[in-house]
Amino acid sequence: MKIASQGASSFQLGNLRVVTEDLPPYQMSGKNGQIEGVAAEKVNRVLADLEITSNIEVMPWARAYKTALNEPGTLIFSIVRTPAREHLFHWLGVLMSTKTYLISLRERTDIQVETLSDLLDYKVGVKRDDVVYQFLSGKNMLDTIVVLPETFVTVKMLLRGRADIIAASPIHLDYMCEQIGCKRDDFNFLFELDELSNDFYLAANKLTPPDTILLLKQKLAELE
User: Fold this and answer.
1) Could you tell me which residue, 122 or 23, shows the higher pLDDT?
2) pLDDT tens digit string along 31-41?
3) Model pTM?
4) How far is the CA of 206 from the CAs of 2, 32, 119, 192, in angstroms?
């Protein structure tokens, strides 16, 4: 195969594993088992350009993160690059940018949050092992967290009053509201989590071969 002459063996590329979570509209299961979405489209193009036939596996974020962390030759997206994660992965390139906000229901006029410490007075719904979970954990705020399996559930729990606050990006919130019948005006954007308003990356397990990393970086950069 011609990819072997580009610096990474066909064996290495053929054994790449690609994992992600269901996070519409960035990545989501579509027709015929294909993974669609604005971030998944870029990943699919990289795989196609390199003639890689690996299927993107969708799983809960905690499992995807653990898989990418521990299994050489595993790619993961869409993942936020943080100081705590910096040396855990190879960062292949940016898929898209996003902003993250703390959000409450507009009708909850009793909720007043001006600093992170104010969160200790509320139940904050977060997805297990995602960047918000890790961020609040690093601030010693686990006591305020309600751990949930995926982001869709955080919105549902907020609407049902089982969480006081969640974290989400506007584009993701809009998409979820389309699915469950809410609208952006139903929510208050309390404040932006500047440290988490960042880029979504495609990343690779730290033990992935260097020539494979270089090739993936080059192909992703060519999409810009």
Assistant:
1) 122
2) 777 889 989 99
3) 0.68
4) 25, 32, 34, 31
Amino acid letter for position 117: S
Long-range contacts of range 216-219, CB-CB < 8 Å, 24 or more positions apart? 216/46, 216/50, 216/75, 216/92, 217/92, 217/93, 219/46, 219/49, 219/50
Phi then psi for residue 216, to 5 deg, are -65, -40
CA gap 58, 23 in Å, rounded: 10
User: Measured between alpha carbons, how far is 46 from 60 in angstroms, rounded to an integer?
Assistant: 23
Phi, psi of 193 (to 5 degrees): -85, 90
